[in-house]
Design a protein that fits this description.
globular, Butyryl-CoA Dehydrogenase, subunit A, domain 3, alpha+beta, two-stranded antiparallel sheet, 12 helices
């Protein structure tokens, strides 16, 4: 087994830099708020702004969605670290696009190809490489991590409703997790297929879209079933948690940098507020919690790339710490911006809401710490 590393390789660094340049040009300062949150009226009435299809075409042309997919299906064949680097840049720019959820599906496709290679899995992978957006449906409870409990497959058709489906109103392909008489199944569906209905959910985070997927007799391509499907999904969950953590880290980094710059220029009592110790302490606390979340996220990506035995624990630890960073950084950024921090005209609310949505998506800190305790306790009992 190779030694762990927390550094990006050259390919991952290039993917990160290319995405940063593209998003910097397409989403300069103020552009996200101007396009997604021009005023509170639309948000209060539940109006939704679709994603920019031109931005998605540019992202697809760079091959970012298929970064984790193997060369055999047209992907870049990069490590999980490259997908993490991409997710972090998406959060830093608060990019309104379905690339994060599509990258999660790519991670699932990669695990399916390892556990249950098939023509259906290859077809799904090629759809992603060719520019199709995708998402995973399966959640029913308060934890938005998908599972096999919300949907049911009977006589070849899918029934039920899955909530909290990221980018469901935009995704062209929906990968459904369902239960059946023969055990769990993973099925790929076209969003526009018969029996598939997507109901948009209203979000506080205006840079994302989310919905409930209702299936009533929908048919799709069976990708895996039984114990193979369960193993593939258990491996793929680490991708979801790690990529979600990376997106949060990127958003929190933007909040820290923006708040630090504001503290250097905003004056109170004739002095910049950044000279006051209470402000410095909050900025250092933000930096420290972000650094820890970033380190754990990079470590989780490395564990996935090496298929290490502790990959689930590493991913859960990353998501737990990133969720804590979201809570702290969103609150501190708004507080340190003072009277304008919570206003609609300030960019801070856009990134704060993205971080807070990420905090609760795919399990919050309390859930992942509880599961980490279980994993570590089980491991300790096995050693006795």
């Amino acid at each position: 087994m190779s030694a762990p590393t927390l550094e990006f390789d050259d390919d991952a660094a290039r993917a990160r830099d290319e995405l940063r340049r593209l998003l910097g040009a397409r989403l300069p300062r103020g552009a996200v708020r101007a396009t997604r949150a021009p005023d509170p009226t639309a948000a209060h009435h539940g109006d939704v702004t679709p994603y920019d299809p031109a931005l998605w075409r540019e992202l697809s042309a760079l091959g970012l969605a298929g970064a984790a997919l193997p060369d055999a299906v047209g992907g870049a064949g990069l490590s999980a670290s490259a997908s993490v680097a991409i997710a972090e840049e998406l959060g830093r720019a608060a990019a309104p696009c379905p690339l994060l959820s599509t990258s999660m599906v790519a991670g699932l496709a990669r695990e399916l190809a390892r556990c249950a290679p098939s023509g259906g899995v290859d077809a799904l992978s090629r759809r992603i490489v060719d520019g199709a957006s995708a998402t995973i449906a399966g959640a029913s409870g308060v934890d938005s991590t998908p599972g096999f409990d919300a949907l049911h497959r009977h006589d070849g058709v899918l029934l039920g409703a899955a909530r909290y489906v990221a980018d469901a109103p935009e995704a062209q392909v929906i990968v459904a997790l369902a239960r059946s008489e023969a055990g769990p199944v993973i099925v790929a569906l076209e969003r526009g297929a018969a029996g598939v209905e997507v109901i948009e959910e209203r979000l506080v985070d205006l840079t994302r879209r989310q919905g409930t997927v209702r299936l009533d007799g929908a048919r799709g391509q069976l990708l895996a079933s039984g114990e193979v499907a369960r193993r593939a999904w258990e491996a793929a969950r680490s991708w979801l948690w790690t990529l979600a953590a990376a997106d949060i880290v990127g958003a929190c980094e933007w909040l820290l940098q923006t708040t630090t710059e504001y503290a250097k220029t905003r004056e109170q009592f004739g002095r910049p507020i950044g000279v006051y110790q209470a402000v410095k302490h909050q900025l250092v606390a933000m930096m420290s919690t972000i650094d820890l979340a970033r380190s754990l996220t990079y470590a989780a990506a490395d564990s996935i790339s090496r298929d290490a035995p502790d990959r689930e624990a590493a991913a859960r630890a990353a998501k737990a710490q990133a969720s804590e960073a979201a809570r702290l950084c969103a609150g501190s950024a708004i507080q340190l911006h003072g009277g304008i921090g919570f206003t609609w005209e300030c960019d801070v609310h856009v990134w704060a809401k993205r971080a807070l949505h990420g905090q609760l998506s795919y399990g919050d800190a309390a859930l992942h710490r509880r599961e980490l305790s279980r994993l570590w306790l089980d491991a300790a009992l096995e050693l006795r």
